[in-house]
Design brief:
Blueprint: E1 4-9, H1 14-25, E2 30-37, H2 41-51, E3 55-58, H3 64-70, E4 77-80, H4 82-88, E5 96-99, H5 107-115, E6 119-122, H6 125-141, E7 145-148, H7 151-163, E8 168-175, H8 185-189, H9 193-196, H10 206-214, H11 216-229, E9 236-240, E10 246-252, E11 257-261, H12 267-275, H13 289-292, H14 306-317, H15 321-337, H16 343-355, H17 365-381
Parallel strand pairs: 1-2, 1-5, 2-3, 3-4, 5-6, 6-7, 8-9
Antiparallel strand pairs: 8-10, 10-11
Length: about 375
């Protein structure tokens, strides 16, 4: 495999740091040419020095002088703002763009990478949730490629590689159930952000961890799967699998089911996306089925996890509804993390914003940005 030059959008977050760990293990296969962060200057500087990155971008322009001073004794080129990031991902020296930014902010640079015909290893699910039809059409028009980094979508992709073109009957997206899987609704109503951040299996950033606790994360993954694999939502089933060993399954018309298994470690799907179609070792724990003993399944409780229901409703409605749900959820989760609202208020805000949406059946990219702005404003005013 020829050496691949990697740009990491969001290198200081959970996915970004684990991507760098994969690259650290394989310096003969991967080279870091671009890293970026929104605010974390100190870690960004450490990464720039360790990996000798050609370009370093801080998206929060107020932090630019601090970054520039910290790297003035290096050969790193230092830039500020999302527009710089959008330009740099299109450069000839970038082979793969890792989309690891959090939230709606990842849409614009991801679109820029696709317009340049790049391979995008996508972990930023909000990009496809907010603008799935536009993103996938842009990918096709520019002969770009999206490789999924989410463990569930990577698993589906790997199962489909084994399918050899056979028709899909159903996709089974597995979910851990998060920290509140065994709690009753009354106890969940009093849950704090600190409790919600204690995920039993995965090490993730704060936003994704809260989304896992509400199962909005799984709802967004249903929307992602529709666009990534061209499967209608009615054929995408969510099943609770608390051990997080089966990352997802694909069922075929003859009833056969192919599953992808492994201990929870995001470096495995990251490594697969970076090296595809090859595989690289990532230092992860190898699966021991006898030691594991058993794997259990159950259906999600939509009374306890109404955000999952709202995600299905949004994608069935289509248009700019998923974008609105994503925008509302970003604001609601931020409020919850600041202890301004309760656990079930997240779903209430999301539902209210969907009901107040100025619906557009076939939105343009400009419509998506406007929907995001309008719904964010509505969500900010909710429950104040």
């Amino acid at each position: 495999m020829a050496k691949r030059r990697i740009a990491i959008l969001g290198s200081t977050g959970s996915i970004g740091t684990q991507t760098l760990d994969v690259i650290r293990q394989h310096p003969d296969l991967f080279e870091v040419v671009l890293i970026s962060a929104r605010n974390n200057v100190s870690l960004l500087v450490e990464q720039a020095r360790e990996f000798d990155a050609d370009n370093v971008v801080i998206c929060n322009e107020e932090k630019f002088p601090e970054l520039q001073k910290a790297l003035e004794d290096t050969d790193c080129k230092v830039w500020e703002g999302v527009e710089s990031l959008c330009r740099l991902v299109q450069a000839d020296n970038v082979d793969i763009v890792v989309g690891a930014m959090v939230g709606f902010s990842g849409l614009k640079p991801t679109m820029s990478a696709l317009e340049a015909g790049k391979i995008v290893a996508l972990a930023n699910k909000e990009t496809l949730v907010a603008a799935g039809s536009i993103v996938t059409e842009t990918m096709r028009r520019h002969n770009a490629l999206i490789l999924p980094v989410d463990s569930e979508h990577s698993a589906i992709f790997q199962c489909l590689l084994a399918a050899q073109g056979n028709e899909i009957e159903k996709i089974h997206l597995t979910a851990s159930g998060g920290p509140f899987r065994t709690w009753n609704k009354e106890r969940m109503a009093a849950a704090t952000a600190a409790q919600a951040l204690k995920h039993p299996n995965w090490n993730m950033g704060a936003k994704v961890t809260i989304d896992s606790a509400t199962m909005m994360n799984k709802g967004f993954e249903v929307i992602e799967a529709k666009w990534l694999f061209d499967v209608e939502p009615a054929r995408i089933n969510v099943v609770i699998q608390p051990e997080s060993i089966i990352h997802s399954m694909v069922e075929f018309t003859d009833g056969a089911v192919i599953a992808q298994l492994g201990y929870p470690d995001m470096r495995e799907p990251i490594g697969f996306a970076l090296s595809f179609p090859s595989r690289v070792t990532v230092g992860n724990r190898k699966l021991n089925l006898a030691e594991l003993g058993s794997i259990t399944f159950s259906e999600p409780d939509l009374e306890k996890f109404p955000c999952l229901r709202l995600a299905y409703e949004a994608i069935e409605r289509g248009g700019n509804a998923p974008c609105a749900l994503n925008a509302a959820n970003e604001i609601a989760v931020a409020k919850f993390l600041r202890n301004e609202i309760g656990y079930f208020d997240i779903a209430r805000i999301n539902e209210k914003c969907l009901k107040n949406l100025d619906f557009i059946a076939n939105p343009s990219l400009e419509d998506i940005y406007e929907t995001n702005r309008e719904i964010a404003s509505i969500a900010n005013d909710c429950l104040d």
